[in-house]
Amino acid sequence: MSVLQSEIAVGSEQFEQNKSALLTQIAEIRAIQNKSIEKSYAAKPKFDKRGKILPHERVRLILDADSPFVELCGLVGYGMHDDKDGSDAGGGILAGIGFVSGVRCLVTASNSAIKGGTISPMGVRKTLRIQEIAMKQKLPVVALTESGGANLTYAAEVFTDGGKTFANQARMSAMGIPQISVVHGNATAGGAYQPGLSDYVISVRKKTEMFLAGPPLLLAATGEVASAEELGGAEMHAQVAGTAEYLAENDADGLRIAREVLEHLNWKEQTHSLNESYKEPRYAIEELLGIIPTDPKQPLEMKEIIARLVDDSDFLEFKQEYDSHTVCGWSKIGGLNVGIITNNGPITTQGAAKAAQFIHLCEQTQRPLLFLHNTTGFMVGTDAEQNGIIKHGSKLIQAVTNCTVPKISIVAHGSYGAGNYAMCGRPLDPDFIFAWPNSHVAVMGSAQAGKVLRIVAEEKQKAAGMEPNAQMLDFLEQSTAVKLEQQSTALFNTAMLHDDGIIDPRDTRKVLIFLFKTIYESRARQLNASKFGVSRF
Ligand code: COA
């Protein structure tokens, strides 16, 4: 046993300052998340009048009571397109991993309480990411659909990637991943192909309106007059067109039928039995609040973090004496073996070589990897260059990319430059990546970026025989730094889908156990693939 010993002065002035600043930050993010929930619930009278259940409630009701649910990409699109303050964030869909009838599933719901559940450009990108997760983790998809299709204000941005979501649905069916859709209301055009490409469709009496063109468009396009019921009603699809396999009496009944379909999937019986007995960390996870500095430039000792995340705070460090900036070692999380790679500063040549070797060892016995980001990037300078930092850094990126073990990233503090790639940032395709509220991801520190552009501009002025214009250079430096700072924050990065969501640091262990179990389960599952997927004739 190698139990980590904490040296944190819990309750010190610095601890309390960190804690209060981080709690404020968490509250700010929660307030933004609540905006879209509040806006959705404001539509309750309209939904009540229509005899419908709100999208958030549909998600709540389909999930097994008191079971865990990890939301994915909740703040995607924050401050983009139609969104001003978070009210319209989320891309038009709710999504997450949870349990339905005991089956671990990917659950999605069109947020029809906002903009008719139409899909924004970031909503399409979110859907692609959700589908990537479903395919990689072999998760059945339950879609609670009610969508006006593409958000026509951004039609051109949605069109091509929207088509890719349908191709993915076809692929999933062929891979052997079941897709179940409940059509709670409107499913127009692209909105209709989503259930159409599902393996099981449940229509809801008097509520489903699933057609390629609704009455107004049909009239405008061909002059034909037809009712919504004739064109795409629930009975029509269940009894005439055969697009729906089940006819539900109302929203709640549709959810019940979906749960029954999952019950009969023959899915949960195949799950891998996972070791349930493990010890909690020796230090309280709440203490993370006082340990994490709000300023990304302040150092953070990552072994203090590991001590609060892993079973029994037990961490068998690898090559402790060989570079202290890169920390590698083995632990268990929720009883499951993991290799951890983290940083206490820049990645040096030695650190890169150590981490790459560690990855090879994890690969040898298929131990999943957890990356905890806390790096200012690869070391620069004459020494580093002469010691082959490019060569070693490249090999680390190669090892991270090509290793076949599952990978989860937590962006804990700063994550800069190619150091972000080497720590399995979004571009290197971790199975999951979540960020803490105060984390920063960027190509480099904002102040340094400002200085770089200043030097380049100053040199250019001098080369042109001009006297350097200090006022202009000051402005360039400051505006560049301010812009990059704004674009480094966790909120900015999550809006851009550079992660799968922001989590409260105190939830990290719970989330990691859930995600590692998801991964272990998927690795144990054999899919029954076919060439074309399930056809509906
Ligand atoms: N693109 C952009 N915005 C749309 C939209 C679309 N396809 N469909 C609806 N909206 C917007 C509305 O303008 C309205 O915006 P607001 O809240 O800012 O006023 C909001 O979504 C809600 O629309 P509303 O019609 O009031 O809601 P509803 O619940 O009564 O009906 C629909 C929702 C989707 C059934 C209905 O709006 C509709 O039929 N839309 C057109 C669908 C279509 O033809 N899509 C083709 C896509 S290729």
UniProtKB/TrEMBL annotation:
<keyword id="KW-0436">Ligase</keyword>
<feature type="domain" description="CoA carboxyltransferase C-terminal">
    <location>
        <begin position="280"/>
        <end position="526"/>
    </location>
</feature>
<dbReference type="InterPro" id="IPR034733">
    <property type="entry name" value="AcCoA_carboxyl_beta"/>
</dbReference>
<keyword id="KW-0479">Metal-binding</keyword>
<dbReference type="Pfam" id="PF01039">
    <property type="entry name" value="Carboxyl_trans"/>
</dbReference>
<feature type="domain" description="CoA carboxyltransferase N-terminal">
    <location>
        <begin position="15"/>
        <end position="277"/>
    </location>
</feature>
<dbReference type="GO" id="GO:0046872">
    <property type="term" value="F:metal ion binding"/>
</dbReference>
<dbReference type="InterPro" id="IPR045190">
    <property type="entry name" value="MCCB/AccD1-like"/>
</dbReference>
<dbReference type="InterPro" id="IPR029045">
    <property type="entry name" value="ClpP/crotonase-like_dom_sf"/>
</dbReference>
<protein>
    <submittedName>
        <fullName>Acyl-CoA carboxylase subunit beta</fullName>
        <ecNumber>6.-.-.-</ecNumber>
    </submittedName>
</protein>
<dbReference type="GO" id="GO:0016874">
    <property type="term" value="F:ligase activity"/>
</dbReference>
<dbReference type="InterPro" id="IPR011763">
    <property type="entry name" value="COA_CT_C"/>
</dbReference>
<dbReference type="InterPro" id="IPR011762">
    <property type="entry name" value="COA_CT_N"/>
</dbReference>
